[in-house]
C-alpha cells in the first residue's frame, strides 16, 4: 500500500537482521531504514549517536542519530507519506464515483442516439414523404438535448418548441395538404411562426416540455453532482498541510528513528490528536458530504416513471407520432387558421421528395424490450447502495487512518512524541476545527479557503 506498508516491512526486516545481541550504541538501524526507504543519500549519515543541537523538530536530551539534513529529508518524506495514505484511503470511493460518472454519461449518450434513431425511423417508415426534410430538425433537436444534459445552458422549453415549430410547415405541406408543395420560403416561415398560436399538435408539445424539462434537468444535475464528488476527493487528496501540521507529522512518524527506535509506532491517542489536527479542515466537509449523498439519493429516487430520462427519450418518437396524428385529424381546422394568418399560398402540384428505399432496411425500428437488469434505474440504485456506505467518509477519516495504518494497537508500548511509553496521557480532542483549540500536538489556524470553496460547491449542488 505504498510507502507506509513498505516502511513497516523494511523496519521488520531491519529488526530481524539486527538481532545480534549488540548493545553498543549505534545508528546502524536508522541508517539502513533511511537508505532502504530512499529518503535521501547515504553520504553524511552518522554511524554513532551524536549531539543534536542543530535539530529543530526531532530534539532530544539524549544523543541522536539524525542530522539537520536528515530532518529536512524526513520532512519531505512524511508529506509524501500522508498524501499517499490519503489517496489510498479514498481510492475505492474515487473509483466508484468516477467509474459510474463515465458509465452514466456513456448511457445518456447512447440513449440520445437511440432516441434520435427511433424518431428518424418513425419518419422513414410512417411519414416517408417528409423524412428527408425532417432529418435536420431531428438532428438539431437531439444535439441540443445532448448539449443540455452535458452542461450547456439551453432552455429545454425553447428547444422543444423550436422542434415543433420547424416540423409544422413540413406537416402542413405533406400531411395536412399532401402533394401541394413548392411554397415560398416566406409563406413557410409564416406557418412556422404561427404554430404556437394555432396549436396543430394539440397538447403534445406541452407534455414533451414537461417530461423533457424535468428528466433532462435531473440527469444533468446528477452528472454534475458526480463530477463534483470527484472534484472534492481530488482536492482533499492533494490538500496542502500547514507548517505546524508537517512538523507534528514528522515528530510522530520519523523522530523516533533518531533515537534508534525504528520499530515504534505512535500511540493511538497521540496519532488521533496529530491526524485530527492535520485533517481538521477536511472534517468540516463531513456534514455537507452527508447532505450531498442524501441529495443524490433523493434525486435518484425522483428520476423514475414518466420522468426517467430513459423512458422520456425512448418514448419521444411515440409522442411525435401522436402530435402528427392530431395535426392530421385537425387538418381542415388547421388549414383554415393558417389561411387566416398567412393567406392562401400560390402553389403548383409537384411530387413530394420521398425517402430513399435503399436505406429502409437499415433504418428498421428496433423496439425490442430492454433487459430490466440493464435499465438506467437499476444502475442508479446499485450505485447509490454502494455510495451510501461512504456517507461518513470525511467524518471518520482521521480515525480510520490511525486505526488501519498509523498507530500502535492498544496494549503495546508506543511513541508519544518524546519517548516510548505504555500509554498516551494527554487529552484526545475531537474532529473538526472547533475541537482543535485544546489539541496539545497541532495548532490549527482557521478554515482553509480551498476547503471553503469545496463546501460552497457542495451547498450549491445540494440546493
From TrEMBL:
Organism superkingdom: Eukaryota
Keyword entries, A-Z: Cell membrane, Glycoprotein, GPI-anchor, Heparan sulfate, Lipoprotein, Membrane, Proteoglycan, Signal
This protein's GO CC annotations: cell surface; extracellular region; plasma membrane; side of membrane
Topological category with respect to the lipid bilayer: Lipid-anchor; GPI-anchor
Pfam families attached to this UniProt entry: Glypican
Protein location: Cell membrane
One annotated GO biological process: positive regulation of canonical Wnt signaling pathway
Annotated signal sequence range: 1-21
Region (Disordered): 352-373
Key word Membrane present: yes
Family the UniProt entry places it in: Belongs to the glypican family.
UniProt function note: Cell surface proteoglycan.
PANTHER family according to UniProt: GLYPICAN, GLYPICAN-5
Protein name, per record: Glypican 5
Organism this protein belongs to: Chelydra serpentina
